[in-house]
Design a protein that fits this description.
By secondary structure, the protein is α/β, with parallel strands linked by helices. It contains eleven helices and ten strands. A five-stranded parallel sheet has the order 3-2-4-1-5, with helices on both faces. The chain has a five-stranded mixed sheet with strand order 6-7-10-8-9, sandwiched between helices.
């Protein structure tokens, strides 16, 4: 994009006013997936409160800002959500331009809705800056189509962090749809998730994949079947952050990757 194009875009971008909070999505990892609106916000913010999936490369676009790390990672010391929300309100009341930056999209398993609700109740002006959600970016980067005519009519985005618990999803119901499922935050419960889906009627031979650290230099891809995915992930040392993909759409990768690259 030319400098003139940026200038024309800048005329349409809203002012980032003191005392405002912008809830923004940083995309799946690599800075090239930032939206132009979020990139503009990074250059204007006084404070950036970011989560664990926002890279140092992304933060390099906000050299003027004071940075607060507010990451939450399963099984590791994490900042309490209530403390994060209170910090956003406190900083806004101090007259700061506050950018709350999350991996992916703030409204897809990012607690953006909770934070927006708290800001509204506190009378803090805020905006939502959407980001490319990690599931769709990860599928595209690994050449797995999220939907495919004749193969899928819907796709489910699910969270797997509470798999097997009393208030968890009805995995059997998801299995019965026969449609693709993309699971966030499910790696530690992968064995439970695959078992529940198979018990719910999804065939063990269903194509499945894990996309680890999507779009970054650390990206890794594992393809297997629903029945073998958990054991293969353990054997190959896959770790979070990772997305689990279940469904016939995984099979399409074999047709979309050039033969010389597939080897």
């Amino acid at each position: 994009m030319t400098n003139r194009a940026f200038e024309l875009l800048a005329e349409r971008l809203p002012a980032f006013l003191p005392g405002h909070v912008w809830l923004a999505g940083a995309g799946p990892g690599d800075p090239r997936y930032l939206t132009l609106e979020v990139l503009d916000a990074l250059g204007k913010a006084d404070m950036v409160v970011h989560d664990a999936l926002v890279s140092d490369e992304v933060m390099g676009f906000a050299p003027q800002a004071e940075v607060i790390y507010a990451g939450k990672r399963g099984g590791k010391p994490s900042t309490a959500q209530e403390d994060i929300t209170l910090s956003l309100i406190r900083l806004a009341r101090q007259g700061k331009r506050v950018l709350r930056l999350k991996g992916g999209d703030p409204f897809i398993f990012g607690r953006g809705g909770e934070e927006a609700e708290a800001l509204a109740q506190a009378g803090i002006p805020f905006r939502i800056l959407p980001g490319m959600t990690s599931a769709l970016a990860a599928l595209a980067s690994t050449r797995i189509p999220a939907t495919m005519r004749g193969m899928s009519k819907a796709i489910t985005l699910a969270t797997g962090h509470a798999a097997g618990e009393a208030d968890d999803l009805d995995w059997a119901a998801l299995a019965r749809t026969g449609e693709p499922i993309v699971v966030y935050m499910g790696l530690k419960n992968l064995a439970t998730i695959t078992r529940l889906l198979i018990e719910g009627g999804r065939a063990a031979k269903t194509p499945a994949a894990i996309i680890m650290a999507a779009t970054t230099k650390e990206e890794r891809l594992l393809t297997a079947t629903l029945g073998t995915l958990s054991s293969e992930a353990e054997r190959q040392g896959f770790a979070a952050p990772a997305l689990i993909v279940i469904g016939e759409i995984v099979r399409m990768r074999g047709l979309l990757v050039p033969k010389e690259a597939a080897g």
